[in-house]
């Protein structure tokens, strides 16, 4: 099927644009809508009356479900307050899989507990047909000593050499904090957050749609991972920033033949199924007990070029017929 807007960021209202997307045609839909918190967007006033906001959300959520394939996934990122309404609505038209808690401090909202996570609702269009891959992330370690943060006691020997399977609580991905890495946008997401979701639920050449594209984080993640993207965004300046960034991206977030997610010079997400083939790219502990103190390290050279406006960008030096990283050792 030839999809309209494939590999484009289109300026306009997502409600109208979504109407052009055929039923059951998209592999993954992800939305990070305005949170109705009076954020200073350029073209959108982020302060609707409660019922008006919820009615509006129901319209684009219905469209997201309509366009998602039976094998596809629907992700909604927001503060817990709005996700409770979204879930009530979504439970009628899709199948709940997970509430992912993304540990990232948010703004205090009056006499409340300090909000410390965003939620990402994960729904399947059809539970039995859902495409899903287990993914792993590196073991958490103390920054100074490199010791494992968790005490695994006698079970250390049985730990996976790369890291644990990703659960529904994500503490290892930080918000884009420093201004020098941020676009002119009030709430840009980190690319490797989207890369994790994409690796979990799509394959190469699948299509990912984001109706609130902002400065293009989802599209960049999709492009780096060899997926197609469609982005909608109301503000022309944000569209321009996204297009500029996308023009400088390529589909090269790979080790050998396998798609992985990098942050700086580290692999932060890989598929469990790919580990057998990927392990040759890492120095692994020779004795099981070393896992306690020795972080996993890539063998091959990776270059981190000058930052673009936005999140980190990896360029990988390639060599050999099978597109492997150059095997120049780091040490
Ligand atoms: C929370 S931000 C998304 C940020 C994005 N995830 C990123 O990392 O850059 C929400 C975006 O939705 C856009 N927006 C608001 N209403 C819209 C609409 N009806 N159609 C398309 N985009 C809209 C805003 O301009 C804003 O950029």
Labels describing this entry:
alpha/beta, binds S-adenosylmethionine, eight-stranded mixed β-sheet, 331 residues, 17 strands, Rossmann fold, disordered C terminus, globular, single chain
Topology:
Layout lengths: L7 E4 L2 H5 L7 E6 L18 H18 E11 L1 H11 L4 E9 L13 E8 L10 E2 L32 E2 L20 H11 L5 E4 L6 H8 L3 E6 L2 H12 L6 E2 L2 E2 L1 E3 L2 E6 L3 H4 L3 E2 L13 E2 L19 E2 L4 E2 L6
Parallel strand pairs: 1-9, 2-3, 2-8, 4-7, 8-9
Antiparallel strand pairs: 3-5, 4-5, 6-13, 10-11, 12-13, 14-15, 16-17
Helix pairs in contact: 2-3, 4-5
Bound molecules: S-adenosylmethionine.
CATH class category name: Alpha Beta
Task: Estimate the global geometry from the Cα principal axes.
Answer: globular
Q: Provide the spatial order of strands within the biggest beta sheet.
A: 1-9-8-2-3-5-4-7
Q: Which spans have pLDDT < 50 for at least 5 consecutive residues? A: 304-331
Tell me the CATH architecture: 3-Layer(aba) Sandwich
Our Rg estimate from Cα atoms comes to: 20 Å
**What fraction, in percent, of the residue positions are helical?**
10-25%
Number of separate structural domains: 1
Secondary-structure element order, N to C: EHEHEHEEEEHEHEHEEEEHEEEE
Number of strands: 17
């Amino acid at each position: 099927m030839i999809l309209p807007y494939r590999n484009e960021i289109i300026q306009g209202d997502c409600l109208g644009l979504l109407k052009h997307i055929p039923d059951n045609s998209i592999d993954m839909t992800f939305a990070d809508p305005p949170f109705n918190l009076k954020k200073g967007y350029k073209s959108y006033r982020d302060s609707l009356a409660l019922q008006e906001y919820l009615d509006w959300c129901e319209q684009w959520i219905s469209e997201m479900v309509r366009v998602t394939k039976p094998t596809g996934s629907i992700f909604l990122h927001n503060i817990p307050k709005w996700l409770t309404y979204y879930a009530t609505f979504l439970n009628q038209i899709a199948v709940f899989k997970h509430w992912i808690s993304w540990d990232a401090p948010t703004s205090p909202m009056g006499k409340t507990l300090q909000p410390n996570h965003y939620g990402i609702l994960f729904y399947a269009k059809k539970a039995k047909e859902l495409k899903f891959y287990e993914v792993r992330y590196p073991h958490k370690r103390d920054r100074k000593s490199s010791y494992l943060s968790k005490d695994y006691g006698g079970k250390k020997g049985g730990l996976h050499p790369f890291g644990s399977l990703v659960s529904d609580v994500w503490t290892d991905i930080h918000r884009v904090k420093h201004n020098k890495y941020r676009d002119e946008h009030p709430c840009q997401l980190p690319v490797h957050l989207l890369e994790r979701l994409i690796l979990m639920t799509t394959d190469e050449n699948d299509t990912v749609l984001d109706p609130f594209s902002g400065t293009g984080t989802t599209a960049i993640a999709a492009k780096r991972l060899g997926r197609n993207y469609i982005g909608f965004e109301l503000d022309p300046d944000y569209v321009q920033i996204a297009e500029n960034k996308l023009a400088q991206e390529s589909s090269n977030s790979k080790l050998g033949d396998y798609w992985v997610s990098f942050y700086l010079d580290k692999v932060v997400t890989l598929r469990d199924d790919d580990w057998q083939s990927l392990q040759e790219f890492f120095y692994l502990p020779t004795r099981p007990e070393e896992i306690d103190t020795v972080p996993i390290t890539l063998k091959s050279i990776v270059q981190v070029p000058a930052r673009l406006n936005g999140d980190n960008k990896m360029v990988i030096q390639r060599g050999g017929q099978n597109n492997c990283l150059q095997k120049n050792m780091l040490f």
